[in-house]
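[Automated response] Your request has been received and processed.

Submitted sequence:
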Amino acid sequence: MIERAGMSPSATVVDVAELIDGQEIGRFQIRMLLLCAAAMFVDGFDTQAIGYVAPALSAALGLKPGALGLVFASGGLGAILGGLVLAPYADRVGRKPIIVGSLIFFALCTLLISLTNTVPQLMWMRFAIGLGLGGVVPNALALVAENMPRKFRVTLVLLTWLGFSFGSALAGPITAHILDAHSWRSVFVFGGVLPMVIAPLLVVSLPDSVPGLTQRGANGRRIADTLARINPKWTFRKPVQFINSEKKEKGFPVALLFREGRAPITLLLWVMFFMNLLALFFLNSWLPTVLHQTGLPQHAAIVIAGLLHFGGIAGGVAIAPLCDKLNPYLVLACAYICSGIFIVGIGLASNKAMLVMLATFCAGFFTFGAQNSANAIAATRYPTAMRSSGIGWALGIGRTGQIIGPLIGGLLLSLHWRTSGIFYFIALPSVVAATAAFFLSGAGRQIRFGMTSEVR
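Generated structure:
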């Protein structure tokens, strides 16, 4: 607690950022992390399920190979627009209402997609689902980053993101199990019911961001009540003025990403995100189909594709500590190079199941693992006034790869490219991502001054 000039002498000034940074990890932080990770889980499941369902859906509706490319791409477009619009809005109104509203919206749309029968219907519903999905990820990551102690922040944001990875990974075996007994429609019924169960828990138990409440000038009693949930010993009986010691920046949150030396860093982050996510979403959307076409059974292709996400979980846990100890962008650059190598390895393994499994796990380790770490880094690099916008726009620009990757896959399949040739082509974005990360690694001092002075 500190005194500030210009304040009533009887009022105590409380710096909420200072309070939060001085805390250890307790029940409140763990509960918040699990709730946000649960929201991320259903996002990951829904994002990935369409790729696992694709072979069965195509067979049931009599679609040609590559016909679902536009369906995948429409979901990506919705997610981009949802993230770009909702992230800046959340910087102004709060993270929690956007997270809960987005969950309920895409739950309803996921239930409705189980009733569709044509490609245009699938496209429109996937677009609507994407709008909801785009509001969950950046705000869940930002909310965790803002309510956690500084010394644990990157690690805890990464653990939150692993909820998305687990959702994507478990989508494979869950989808395969459902398809063994039911139709593809049942997968989407499950995917719609899941967020409906989680949303009420978030309404009751998930707090909003304390720094965000302070920055927006929320009622002091509301801030005090939220702080008391973090630590019951924090009671404020005397008049209190809550402040946030982060540097205050005014203006449209997206515009702030380009001020005070942040412009080149922001643009390089966008290039890095776009290129890695292009490769990632190609693998998300088409790997089960491509593996099935090499001669692997449908069930095996789905389960093997799920190894991408288990590899990503392991990769995120392994790469994040290295990013804390070394230049994080140099670590990411090396990971992207390894990603390209193992993506090529999937194609060279052809239909040899054990080799495909090994190459797929390693491709996930570096492609998805590096993205997991990149998300955590980006979520901690911007101050409160633009945090959702920073991660939301990085993911939004990156998620244009969610459109282009599936479209490229559909085009290459329609042209009957050989499997090895497809994976050679998809390895190229990893090289560009590594190049962008190398440029970022050489700008360490500028990055610390331009982006992280608020959080270090």
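Summary generated for your ticket: The first strand starts at residue 12 and ends at 15. The mean pLDDT is 77.
If you did not submit this request, please reply to this message.
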